[in-house]
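Table S2 (text version). Query chain:
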Amino acid sequence: MTDLVLVGRIARTHGIRGHLIVNPETDFPHERFVAGRVLHLEMPGRSEPVTIESVRFHLGRPIIAFAGVDTMDAAEALLGAELKMPEADLPPLPAGTYYRHDLVGCEVTDTKGHAIGRVTSVEGPLERSRLVIAGPRGEVMVPMVDGICVRVDPRAKVIVVDPPKGLLEL
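Corresponding structure-token output:
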């Protein structure tokens, strides 16, 4: 089976014609949510391909019409669903940028080799991303910026950080 990556979650309905508002889980919503794209819809007890019939953006979120979903009742049945796409369909990124799903699961250490924890998610937009790290003292957030994240190696599942004093205690 093809590896699928999360690109959005269906948040709520919009209007009476089956349109849905999606919370994007990507830094590239205008590239991921385009008319004609086939996404994979996943929810408990249901997993199927869906085709975007039309899309428009409002306040940074896509409002999507899927083929075959043309009533409010049909749209309500999809609330909470995850929208995914094949990882192979993602274009390569410029050097020094990473897909969120590549960072999740990375072990984080400081420059002295002390374990900080494991990345559980990445929050925020591309220019203000934060690593959410589960560690022995609880959850910490580390800004994904040069000078703090000094080595990022998603293939080795390793991130080395040089946190300013007090960052890990917040």
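Notes on Table S2: The radius of gyration is 18 Å. The longest helix spans residues 72-76.
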